[in-house]
Design brief:
Structural class: alpha/beta
Largest sheet: 4 strands, mixed
Number of domains: 2
Strand content: 5-15%
Bound molecules: pyridoxal-5'-phosphate
Radius of gyration: 22 Å
CATH class of the largest domain: Alpha Beta
Helix content: 40-55%
CATH superfamily of the largest domain: Type I PLP-dependent aspartate aminotransferase-like (Major domain)
Distance between the termini: 21 Å
CATH topology of the largest domain: Aspartate Aminotransferase, domain 2
Shape: globular
Number of strands: 13
Length: 442
């Protein structure tokens, strides 16, 4: 089973095979769809061409390599990303994690505070909370959408709850309408972990601008990337100023002093790359949208394969992952691991996705972390471990299957091959399952 910490290895491997397959199999007709973004690419994700080269050299030759040198690429990227995402303010930072740390730092989240988060997420969401010495509180997932179940948030709120931190997992929006309503009723701010979700929208509004602010990652596996990088978006000027001041010592924007801060600045080189990657992302998104819609329509016809549903009001997914549930009962009891192996034999890379975050050793270790024991006491930390039960998410983690975003850059014919492979496995499932049992000695 792929653990969250191994997710990037999967994405990188999938990217390699997906992008390589795409590049080698592109026909003339497909090239006309591909246009600019595929001009030159390594066999691995990311894809890049002369525009990235030019941008990098421009940053190099400018001699202004960082925020403090007042180069033009950081400002250009912040302006372009804010405009694209229809946000008033963008603060570029060094990663998605530091975007989250900046948002939490700007809000003054710290020891004694509780932060509610999605359970179906990458461990970094949890880390941002614990690096702020706040207490993470997991809320169970909605099996149909893979997103946080908004109906379960209210019950997780305590007098110490200072923040709701939903994740737009897979690049698809969480139900921000319902989540914002809970936050508003209890006067608790909402920060969106939109690390996987640039370009995703709810009712036409880009994610990351629906709560108080949104955090984005441009790490190497992301749909737009500079190897590492991140951003905070917001429409709230006071919050934007606090974030700016938190992410760079001596920030200088108006607002109260925090007494805390860091250097989480992005470099001019990364910003230069990201401005060109944003253009590429927009081009790629059309293909990901079309392929995801086609794949969903066709996969629905395979009993036992249930693509993740988009939440009500979702007008666009960022399609960082294509997620579905696999019901082994509809495949004669064939295990998910064997299903994935058979897909792989058919040349289709897929993964089992996250394991239960709240059950990870890394997460469970918080209950005995000496700082947490000192801050919160043994009783609270023991209760913390007990209270974090997410049975729906546990089942989801056993059933999930992911295709990486690079798969969605393939051709329509490649989408059809995915469905044909799944249907073929289903036809052979009885035999495969018997072989599986024999191999296990059952
Ligand atoms: C949902 C989610 N949150 C946070 C992060 C952290 O981003 P980064 O790796 O850029 O620190 C990631 C990145 O993988 C992510 O997928």
């Amino acid at each position: 089973m792929t653990s969250p910490l191994h997710r990037r290895r999967f994405i990188s491997a999938a990217a390699t095979t997906g992008a390589a397959a795409f590049l080698t199999r592109t026909t003339a007709a497909e090239k006309s769809v591909a246009k600019t973004p595929m001009a030159k690419a390594s066999a691995e994700w990311p894809l890049w061409d002369a525009s990235e080269e030019t941008a990098l050299l421009d940053a190099l030759h400018s001699g202004k390599w960082g925020r403090t040198s007042r180069g033009r690429h950081l400002l250009a990227f912040e302006t372009a990303f804010a405009r694209q995402m229809r946000a008033k303010h963008c603060i570029a930072v060094s990663s998605g994690t530091t975007a989250l740390l900046t948002a939490l730092g700007a809000l003054g989240i710290g020891p004694g505070d509780e932060v509610i988060l999605s359970t179906y997420t990458f461990v970094a969401t949890f880390n941002a909370i614990t690096n702020s010495y706040a207490l993470p509180r997991f809320v169970d997932s909605d099996a149909a959408t893979f997103q946080i179940d908004p109906t379960k948030i209210a019950a997780a709120i305590t007098p110490q709850t200072r923040l709701l931190l939903p994740v737009h997992i897979g690049g698809s929006p969480a139900d921000m309408t319902a989540i914002n309503a809970v936050g508003k009723a209890r006067s608790i701010p909402v920060i969106e972990d939109a690390c996987q979700a640039p370009l995703a929208e709810l009712d036409g509004q880009p994610v990351g601008t629906i709560g108080l602010g949104g955090c984005f990652s441009f790490q190497a596996s992301k749909n737009m990337t500079a190897g590492e990088g991140g951003a905070v978006l917001t429409n709230d000027e006071a919050f934007a100023n606090l974030c700016f001041n938190f992410h760079t010592p001596g920030g200088g924007k108006p607002g109260p002093s925090l007494g805390r801060g860091a250097n989480y600045r992005l470099t001019e080189f990364q910003a230069a790359l990201l401005t060109t990657q944003l253009v590429r992302l927009i081009e790629h998104a059309k293909r990901r949208d079309a392929n995801a819609a086609y794949l969903t329509e066709m996969l629905r016809k395979v009993p036992g394969i249930t693509p993740a549903r988009l939440v009500p009001g979702c007008t666009r997914s960022g399609w960082h992952l294509y997620m579905l549930r696999y019901d082994s009962q509809q495949f004669a009891g064939l295990s998910r691991a064997r299903f994935l192996e058979e897909l792989s034999k058919a040349g289709i890379s897929a993964s089992s996705g996250y394991t239960s975050l709240n059950r990870m050793r890394h997460v469970q270790a918080l209950a005995t972390n000496p700082h947490y024991l000192r801050l919160y006491g043994k009783e609270t930390m023991t209760r913390w471990a007990d209270v974090n039960q997410c049975p729906v998410n546990d089942k989801l983690c056993e059933e999930a299957v992911w295709f990486s975003q690079t798969k969605l850059l393939g051709t329509r014919a490649e989408m059809e091959r995915v469905v044909e492979a799944a249907a073929s496995i289903q036809k052979r499932a009885g035999d495969l399952q018997r072989n599986e049992k024999t191999a296990r000695g059952a």
